Amino acid sequence: MLIVPEREIANLMTRSAAFDAVESVFAAMASKNAYNFPVIREAIGHEDALYGFKGGFDKQGMTLGLKAGGYWPNNLEKHGVINHQSTIFLFDPDTGMVKAMVGGNLLTALRTAAASSVSIKHLARKDAKVMGMVGAGHQATFQLRAALEQRPFEKVIGWNYHPEMLPNIEKVANEAGVPFEAVELDGMVEADVVISITSTFEPTVMAKHISPGTHIACMGTDTKGKQEVEAALLGKATVFTDEVAQSITIGEAQHAIYNHMIRPENIVQIGEVINGTHKGRTSDDEITLFDGTGVGLQDLAVAASVVELAVKNGVAIEVDF
Ligand code: NAD
């Protein structure tokens, strides 16, 4: 069995490797060569922790396994470690034997950023110039860094519920050599691409904030009850997702489905666009919305990729098991 510790991931994994892994597993999902197992997420009644498993099997990439982990809200204060904790386990699909144990914290951020980037590559207008960010927390920095590689953006505009956090994303924009401007939500109408990545349970992005022709990737809603954007926006948009089953239950689409504004059969898996079985954006006026809920197969894909890199670089730890 191979171990790739969390401390090695930053040196090994690149944004482009994460992008390729996620794009290819989304394609495999749409062609029915890969499927996610039902998600388990439990409040364990200890340390206010939410713990669970996301798993799946990708027959194309021959990747089988799960990510185990969750959220421990007291970690930082009590133990000096980050609140989100996860570990990915890969198994040999031929024998069921454990193949690898991989640190999942940084990989989660990279695979989530890769998902919105894949959606931008396939759905945003080619002439997109203004990148809009709603959110400025931990994930937002990864999201923006990856998004800026998808189009030659000339400006980043950002809004955050806690304005004091905006320097987090301003720094990323500046590092990429793109000017940054803080705006009110009404100012988001200038954006050609928007990423929302917040933990809100009340919608902040309203339909009026998104202009015709914009691509919006909604990445924060991954739990029942969370909501970043007004349900009416999904009614106006062509809605894409990583996985329809998650989109309508724990994703942004849960609210539009509940309010009968869209139907599950109208939500398109992004993999169909990647595979060319759905045409994706059809006009410059169309609003495309990607509901990125985060699937287990994304975690397995990036973990498999990092194990390969760790072996190549001689840093995978081999143990008898
Ligand atoms: P964080 O705690 O670092 O940042 C939270 C963000 O939400 C900040 O921008 C904060 O200002 C904003 N926010 C908080 N309360 C708000 C409110 N009431 N209204 C509007 N904005 C509010 O968290 P993070 O690690 O950046 O994660 C952000 C979200 O992304 C979380 O909901 C997390 O569960 C989700 N997430 C999704 C995926 C996925 O695959 N889709 C993966 C990882 C995390």
From TrEMBL:
It holds the Pfam family OCD_Mu_crystall. GO terms for cellular component: cytoplasm. SUPFAM superfamilies: NAD(P)-binding Rossmann-fold domains. Coiled coil: none annotated. This is Ornithine cyclodeaminase. The lineage of its organism: Bacteria, Pseudomonadati, Pseudomonadota, Alphaproteobacteria, Rhodobacterales.
